[in-house]
Design a protein that fits this description.
Elements (H helix, E strand, L loop, with lengths): L1 E7 L3 E10 L4 E6 L3 E6 L8 E3 L10 E2 L3 E4 L3 E6 L4 E10 L1 H8 L7 H6 L6 H15 L5 H25 L8 H12 L7 H8 L3 H12 L3 H17 L5 H7 L5 H12 L3 H9 L3
């Protein structure tokens, strides 16, 4: 692991890091005394998945998304296929400072831990992207800006955790339906409509949208959009032209692809590709 940039605030430490995995991953991450939040800025290793081996209700491997969080005192086992290089923005929040700032303590249920393996909330991702940009190029009053963003990020993460813990334990989609949705979203091309996904799951659109939010903690629209961005990241790591990628992903034009990618990541496709090819 190489730390390429670091920013500090009273509530959190932010690092822009580069990982080099020469072989398939199988390791246990122990977050002893901090909340660890990791947003992958490059394609996540193939078939990345994780679990909490010490938790009876969270021992099954689940998909590891581009953004995950490990609460203090928990051990998370992550595995993936193949070897790769990866860049991430990693925030470590001090639990006591976070509790004092928010005047609350979070209790993480097994369901909450599993939901933290693939966080799709746009507000949280946008804040981390902003921190990544600041870590790359610190500007005027950088420390103050980082403190403000970190505080907002702590609030959004706490809201996310409370929403998961307070959610009723019923009404979500069956595992087979979630697998069908993920398989469909892996297909390259124009993204599916809500009607198509509802038909695939043999549900009404309303049942699909409500059940999906209960299961995954975000709207199905956000999930589809984020999945499309993940596909774009993988294509941009290759040699295809941006124009070809735009049409392969089903965008009406390269400009609409660039607009959507920049809105989701804070960078244009060209800037993202240049970052991948920059010597580390």
């Amino acid at each position: 692991m190489t730390v390429e940039g670091e920013l500090r605030a009273p509530i959190a430490t932010v690092q822009l890091v580069h990982f080099d995995f020469p072989e398939p991953i199988d390791n246990v991450m122990r977050s002893r005394d901090s909340y660890r939040v990791d947003l992958c800025l490059t394609p996540r290793p193939g078939n990345a998945r994780a679990r909490y081996p010490d938790r009876r209700g969270a021992r099954h491997f689940e998909r590891l998304g581009n953004l995950f969080m490990v609460p203090p005192g928990e051990a998370m086992q992550a595995v993936s296929d193949g070897c790769c290089q990866q860049a991430s923005i990693v925030c470590e929040f001090n639990p006591s400072s976070m509790s004092a700032f928010l005047d609350t303590d979070l209790e993480w249920t097994d369901r909450g831990l599993q939901a933290g393996l693939d966080i799709r909330e746009r507000n949280i991702q946008s804040l981390l992207q902003r921190l990544a940009a600041e870590a790359r190029h610190p500007g005027f009053a950088s420390a103050t800006l980082v403190e403000l963003i970190a505080a907002q990020l702590a609030i959004e993460l706490t809201r996310y955790g409370k929403a998961i813990n307070d959610r009723p334990g019923f009404g979500g989609l069956a595992a087979w339906r979630l697998r069908l949705l993920d398989e469909r979203l892996k297909e390259v091309g124009e993204p599916p409509t809500l009607t198509e996904l509802a038909d695939l799951c043999q549900l009404s659109v309303r049942q699909l949208t409500r059940g999906f939010r209960t299961s995954r903690g975000c709207s199905i629209g956000d999930y589809v959009a984020n999945n499309r961005v993940e596909q774009a990241r993988k294509f941009l790591a290759g040699e295809q032209s941006i124009k070809a990628i735009a049409y392969e992903l089903g965008f009406a034009s390269p400009s609409s692809f660039c607009f959507a990618f920049r809105r989701a990541t804070g960078e244009t496709p060209t800037q993202f590709r240049q970052g991948l090819r920059r010597p580390h």
